[in-house]
Amino acid sequence: MSATIDGGVGETVPGRDIRGSGARWVLVGIVLLGTGLILHDLGHDSLWVDEVAQIEVSSGSVGRILKDVMEVRGQPPFYWVALHFFMPFGGSEFAVRMLSAMFGVVNIVLVYKLGQALFGHREGIVAAFLMALSPLHLSHAQDARMYTAMVCFSTLSLYWLYRAMRENEPGQWLAYAGSSIVNLWNHAYAAFVFGAEVVFAGVWLAWELLGKARQSSSRGMRSKRLLAFVLSNAGIAGAWVPMLLTFRRLSTRVGLGSGGHLRNLPKSVTALVGVVKEFAGGGGPLLTAFVALMVIGVVGCLKRRKELVLLFLSCVGMPVLGFFALKTDRGFFSVRYVIFYLPLFLVFVSRGVLATGEVVACLLCRRRGVVGGSS
After folding, report:
1. CA–CA distance, 272 with 29 (Å, rounded to integer)
2. pLDDT-based confidence at 237, cuts 50/70/90?
């Protein structure tokens, strides 16, 4: 039994494990495919300017890294410190990019787990396959920067929050809090993930507490989940305070401020279209197909899985509102700053793929039945 935004205690739809050894080997094959693509020519390209700066700082002592990153650059320190411990393996392009590559491989497994939790094992398999082939993810998995780590911890926090909201196990809330804290200590824009998660879970809880659910869970269960939600997010917010100070330094250094202007809106919309193109792996028919499948996946949740529609809208809305609220002439920022939502995007695309396949299969069966009957 599990809670949904429609009915407090309802049918458990997602979360099935892979069925059968054949399906497990399919996932293993997808992970091996993705690993091969990530490692292929990993050290071929020369280091670019941001990678050089990353390596120069990470090659120092941990104390020096923390001082440089947090006080001078105004950035969270996790990846800089993590890369420091990879430096003994060598300073070649291949060696210094291996940390991002490892996160990239883990992300293929995590997108399967997210798809499995939200929908089921089939959606997880399709999403993992799309992740393994994603040009956007592959390019950042071959870059000695923190973006695949941001994908990793964002996906983990979304996964554990959804599990915690449905099952309300203490370990799930702790895993959600831990992955969120590391995420915020890895990149400043992980704040958009945290904000989306608070909105998503907060609305879900408010829906139940106001008695809007068709079948409300027990008062004790609602109270325990609300308490776990408050305590988890209080801990995350407390650990986030030092990162807020670093973000102030970063915003001063690059000229950011609060208060978006309407004159930035066209540039932001254009850049947002570019983000979707890179998420889909290209423009034209491919972009149209991916967006259509994503819409099918979202719309299919409207009747019985409204909490997933809320999750999707929260995750899309927070970065759009956040970036527009920043006073900057750069409009909507580069796709790498919102790459953390690539797994969720691919999961909904995967649901659209399977839903479309189910409709086509049903139509073919009916047609065969008609043809068989007439003959």
Report:
1. 33
2. very high
